[in-house]
Amino acid sequence: MKILVCITHVPDTTSKITFSENNTKLNKDGLQFVIGPYDDYALARAVEIKDALGGTVTALNVGLAETEATIRKALAIGADDAIRINAEPTDAYFVASQIAAIAQKENYDLILMGRESSDYNGGQVHGMVGEMLGIPSLSPVMKLDIEGNTAKMAREIEGGKEYLEASLPLVLGCQEPIAEWKIPNMRGIMSARKKPLQVVEPSSDETLTIGQNYEMPAPKGACKMIDADNAASLVELLRSEAKVL
Amino acid sequence: MSVLVFIESADGEFRGTSLEAVAYGAALAKAQGSNATALVLGNTVDASKLPNVGNYGVSKVLHVNDDRLDNGIIQAYAQVVAQAMEKEGANTLVLAKSSLGDAVSARVAAKMKAALASNVTELPDLNAGFTVKRSVYTGKAFQITELKSENKILALKKNAITPEVTDATAEVEAFSPSLSDADFGVSITKTDKITGEILLPEADLVVSGGRGLKAAENWGIIEDLAKALNAATGCSKPVSDMDWRPHHEHVGQTGVKVSPQLYVAVGISGAIQHLAGVSSSKCIVVINKDPEAPFFKAADYGIVGDAFEILPKITEAVKALK
Q1: A13–B272: do the CB atoms touch at under 8 Å?
Q2: Which residue among A114, A236, B202, B307 is buried most deeply as judged by most CB within 10 Å?
Q3: Measured between beta carbons, which residues in chain A are less than 8 angstroms from residue B133?
Q4: DSSP letter, residue B34
């Protein structure tokens, strides 16, 4: 089983987001960067499948040199080797084109990634890669078992889930509870330093969107406190003041 | 060049967020001096309801009468949508962001080399090129994004537009795309889905519970209030992790992002990951026994106290209102 796991390098989910340079750039000062939380699930499941069935897991990231600590963490968790495509991940089409170019050469059985990155939340890259490679793509996948050449999966839909079957190869956007996140142990961290991390230049430079600038949401007004003994009065406030009932 | 709107259904009805997308597509087409057409796949909605899509501003509905499309087969759907865009000469696709919509629109984007913006919150600005405002960093910020290519796809966040509903009806035209067996390579073996309940991402009112409710069997007070309000129920991540509630009810950064008129959070402390999933709610009510719970800072109304005493009182007051 040859598995590619695409990871993003994103601010920790507890981060307070601010912008610099006239609201055109993310202010990275003091931010802790991590493997995207959804990508972390994909990686964990990939390592489990490799441990059960044999094979290799390659981690891939599109990013500048700053992302290498995040890629090393993926190696510490259990990826065998890694590829960094040396470019700013400017838009989903660009990132998908880079992944597809690598996958065309390597014939992976499974290409896994998170359902969406936690910075832009687009949820587009897996579908684009599937289309570019001419193979099925599914997301958000919350259960994945491999039996021979068949993947048995569950996909979350609004109000429930659907169970699916398809032949490999596949591109899947993953989410919990596909696997438990893995915390790298000391042996993993030590071995990650020696695992190969190949840096390749982008295969194209085409993007279809441009992020111009950012805006912050309007600040929230003060919270109006209601006495617990008078809780029923909330309903009248919601009707006449907030006008939401 | 015109606008095509992709419509989804649930429980035999068009989804509310899809009808918002129809209104958005119609408004965009009007601003561009073109036309908008809606696209319905499969036969899960009774054919007699198809002309009613016109209530939301389009004059034509393309209908694909093919039972194989009653299920959301992603590759087949992407084929149909792309072919419908070509047939209609549409260079812009509008749809509601959803589990299926995301998966389909990404494939269409690669097929048509279309610039795709998701979580769009307003009509585009057409004054200088084509730019949209979209929610990024899971609701923590917005980005103004320019769509550069000729073909464009807009995946809308709920409430990107308030639809004006009229009595106008749409003309229904049958559409027969060419589909191959390869487009149906993925098979859906079973679907487990709640029926007759309000879907969380669509809901205008949401009542959500957290660890403060102490156990799964205590959810009756949440369900009673939700029922009285005609609201959907949600929960925090720990609650879904502990299997007190199903995963599709998990609201937050790695779960469902909601944009209701009213979000009532009961026994949820308000971790930043949870707040990210609710930040676009119009009004937030927080009920928690801990006056220091961080959620109060993000709330419009707060009550400090025991949810087991407070919630039934609120439920009674809601019932009295009706």
Answers
A1: yes
A2: A114
A3: 215
A4: -
pLDDT at residue B137, rounded to an integer = 87
Task: Give pLDDT, residue A32.
Answer: 94
Q: Is the peptide bond before A169 cis (omega within 30 degrees of 0)?
A: yes
Across chain A, how many H-helices and E-strands are there?
6, 15
Residues 289-318 on B with a CB inside 8 Å of A are 296-306, 309-310, 313-314, 316-318
Per-residue pLDDT band at B279 (split at 50, 70, 90): confident
What pLDDT does residue A117 have?
A: 87
Number of domains in chain A: 1
Residue A177, domain CATH: 3.40.50.620
> Backbone phi, then psi, for B173, in 5-degree steps?
-120, 130
- For residue A241, tell me if it sits in a domain: no
C-alpha closest to that of B75 among B188, B155, B151 = B188
Range of the domain at A167: 2-214
CATH class (in words) of the domain with range B200-321: alpha beta
Give the domain B2-184 fold: Rossmann fold (3.40.50)
The residue whose two tokens read 């039972």 is B67
The pLDDT value given to residue B194: 80
Query: With contacts defined as CB-CB under 8 Å, which chain B residues touch A118?
Result: 137-138, 253-254
Tell me the one-letter amino acid at B175. F
Among A142, A242, A244, beta carbon nearest to B247: A142
- Does the residue A105 lie in any domain? yes
Residue of B8, B44, B136 to mutate, testing the A interface (most A Cβ within 10 Å of its Cβ): B136
